[in-house]
Amino acid sequence: MADTAGYSAISDLRPLREFVAARALALGLAAPRADLLMLAVNELATNTLQHTTGGGTVRVWADASGLWCDVVDQGAPRAFGRAMPPAEAIGGRGLAIVERICDDVSVFTAAEGTVVRMRLDL
């Protein structure tokens, strides 16, 4: 069963990061990997708050294949497989960072919205 936390404002990001780190550690993810997951969730949640309305939800759970985390919002599906932007670029690194620090990333549309699903090996 997944543990869930919602967010709808910038002030929710710190508690969201704390939730993700605590759940990841409790589910057996090593501390350095939990920090990476926290960074990935922060990047996605920040994108939600900048580019959509209504905030989002984060779910965290583990199974035999690893630790899983969904970030769900009402935004359009994101395109993954992107190159890291050049150093002088103003933005555009968030999704590239997420893709590089997680062992698997996928995006799909579900009844509750757009889901970015990440997996990190335990």
TrEMBL record:
<feature type="domain" description="Histidine kinase/HSP90-like ATPase">
    <location>
        <begin position="12"/>
        <end position="119"/>
    </location>
</feature>
<keyword id="KW-0808">Transferase</keyword>
<dbReference type="InterPro" id="IPR036890">
    <property type="entry name" value="HATPase_C_sf"/>
</dbReference>
<protein>
    <recommendedName>
        <fullName>Histidine kinase/HSP90-like ATPase domain-containing protein</fullName>
    </recommendedName>
</protein>
<dbReference type="Pfam" id="PF13581">
    <property type="entry name" value="HATPase_c_2"/>
</dbReference>
<keyword id="KW-0723">Serine/threonine-protein kinase</keyword>
<dbReference type="GO" id="GO:0004674">
    <property type="term" value="F:protein serine/threonine kinase activity"/>
</dbReference>
<dbReference type="InterPro" id="IPR050267">
    <property type="entry name" value="Anti-sigma-factor_SerPK"/>
</dbReference>
<keyword id="KW-0418">Kinase</keyword>
<dbReference type="InterPro" id="IPR003594">
    <property type="entry name" value="HATPase_dom"/>
</dbReference>
